[in-house]
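Hey, resending since the last one bounced:
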Amino acid sequence: MDAGSGPNRSAGGSTPQSPPSREHPLDVAWIHGSPSAKHNTDPDIQVHAHDEDTYILRQNMAVHYEAPFLFLLFGADRAVLVDTGATGSDAFFPLRRVVDELIAARHPEDGYGLLVLHTHAHGDHVAGDGQFADRPHTTVVDAGLGTAWPYFGFDADPDAVARVDLGGRVLECLATPGHHETAVTFYDPATGFLLTGDSVYPGRLYIQDVPAFTRSIDRLIDFAARRPVTHVLGCHIEMTAVPGVDYPVRTTYQPDEPPLQLTPDHLRRVRAALTELGEDRAWRPYDDFVLCPHD
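The structure tokens again:
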């Protein structure tokens, strides 16, 4: 594994880049499991090409019920893979093979790099890390607090905006703890994607630290207000198409999913919902998400 330089950091502002293209709407029929996992015919990994340099991957529910979404973004010098899914075995979850094939198709030149980052350190987002441990020209940044936050510079300044340059494509990265102490949100100016991990998505928003989560949502609202955000993209879909109703935990067949993409307005809805949390820390369902505080 090659050592890689860390990102640039600043306290705020935005990176001057071309405005995000709106020519590629995110209207995708995602794989969503089967009535019988034994007879599931979905691919192990669904690959959606949003544009020629932006790919969204979803893990098969028959392989793991979490069915997380992963993101592969290409720059001129290297690609970044955000999260590595819920399964370590390449026999059941051939993530490296799929990523290698996509990289070979876009950048066959020798020496093109790969950077592996994470939205946070929960197991369903880091399980595939080992598949990249011996990959040439690759840097895997461990998702743990003692590694990831120093990489971004958040250990010294948790309010910094770290910038990761892929070569003509610069991601902006923010520390957004609350769901998990290691949580990081990524903004891609090229697409306008705000990648919020498990902090905001159409599903159960598990909150480890309510004050920290509230501060992070406030920060995301302010951040998104000063940038052209096309889609807020988390890493799961757990809601049904019926407002306020989620699929049970460990569901492996979700035929009536809503879209993955949310909007900056959903950040404000989450913030408003936080004001309604009681001392009992009871779960509260809303149209597009469920607030799930826990101690």
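The first helix runs from residue 95 to 106.

Sorry for the duplicate.
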